[in-house]
Write a structure and sequence with these properties.
Elements (H helix, E strand, L loop, with lengths): L1 H16 L4 H26 L5 H5 L7 H14 L10 H16 L1 H21 L11 H4 L5 H57 L1 H27 L1
Helix pairs in contact: 2-5, 4-5, 6-8
Length: about 230
C-alpha cells in the first residue's frame, strides 16, 4: 500500500519544481501585451492631427453621439495615467478629453461636419464621382488608399487653412485693439494736459490781474507827467 503511494508523492514534488503554472505565464504575457498596447495608443493620440477630434478619438465622421461617447470612455479608461506608464499619458488623456468635448458641442460639431462635407465633395470630384455618391458605394470601398484616408487628408488641409485665417483675424483684432487702446490713451493724455493748462491759467489769474493793474497805473502816471510837461 505504501509502495503504491510513493511514486505519486514524487510526481507531485516534480511538478512543483517544474516552475510557474502555464496560466501564470499567460497572465504575465497578457499584462505585458496590454501595457504595450496602451503605449501604442498613447503614441497614436499624440501623433493624431490636433485640429480633428474625429482623428484623435479614432471614430468615423458619421458616428453617432452615443458611439463617440462609448469610444471615448473605452480609450480614456485604457490610457488613463493611473493605468498607463507612458510619460506622456496625461497629455494624451487631455487631448482625448478635449476632442470628446468638442464633438459633444453641437455648434462646434456642426461647423466641423460642414468642413468635412466640403472635403468629401472635393475628394469625390477628384475621382470624377458625383457628390451624391453614397458612403457605401462599391467604388469608394475599392479605392486605394481607402476613401477615409483621402477624406482625412483633405479635411486636414481645409482645417489648417481655416486655422490660419482664424489666427490672422485674431492677430488683426489684437492690432486694432492695440491701436484703439493707444488712441484712447492719447485722448486721455490730451484731456489731462488741457485740464492742467486750464488749472494753471486759473491759478495765475490774480497774478495776471495784478500785473495789468500795475501796468495801467504806471501808464496813467506817465500820461499825467507828459501833460504837465507840455503845459509848463
Amino acid at each position: 500500500m505504501s509502495a503504491s503511494t510513493q511514486p505519486q508523492a514524487s510526481s507531485s514534488k516534480g511538478k512543483d519544481q517544474a516552475g510557474p503554472d502555464v496560466a501564470d505565464i499567460d497572465r504575465l504575457l497578457n499584462r505585458e501585451a496590454t501595457a504595450f498596447q496602451r503605449e501604442v495608443e498613447v503614441e497614436r493620440i499624440l501623433k493624431a492631427f490636433k485640429l480633428n477630434p474625429y482623428e484623435i478619438i479614432d471614430v468615423d465622421e458619421l458616428a453617432t453621439q452615443e458611439q463617440i461617447k462609448k469610444k471615448y470612455k473605452q480609450l480614456s479608461l485604457f490610457i488613463h495615467p493611473d493605468k498607463c506608464s507612458h510619460a506622456r499619458a496625461p497629455e494624451a488623456f487631455d487631448l482625448l478629453k478635449k476632442a470628446e468635448s468638442e464633438l459633444s458641442d453641437k455648434a462646434k460639431r456642426e461647423e466641423l461636419d460642414a468642413l468635412v462635407t466640403q472635403s468629401r465633395h472635393i475628394v469625390l470630384k477628384s475621382f470624377n464621382m458625383p457628390i451624391t455618391t453614397p458612403h457605401d458605394d462599391p467604388k469608394l470601398k475599392s479605392l486605394t488608399p481607402p476613401f477615409r484616408v483621402h477624406l482625412r487628408a483633405q479635411s486636414k488641409q481645409l482645417l489648417i487653412e481655416e486655422e490660419v485665417r482664424r489666427r490672422k483675424a485674431m492677430k488683426m483684432n489684437l492690432a486694432n485693439e492695440g491701436l484703439e487702446a493707444k488712441k484712447k490713451e492719447e485722448e486721455v493724455t490730451t484731456k489731462k494736459r488741457k485740464a492742467e493748462e486750464e488749472r494753471a491759467w486759473e491759478d495765475n489769474r490774480e497774478e495776471r490781474v495784478g500785473s495789468w493793474r500795475n501796468f495801467a497805473a504806471t501808464s496813467s502816471k506817465k500820461k499825467k507827467k507828459s501833460k504837465i510837461a507840455i503845459l509848463g
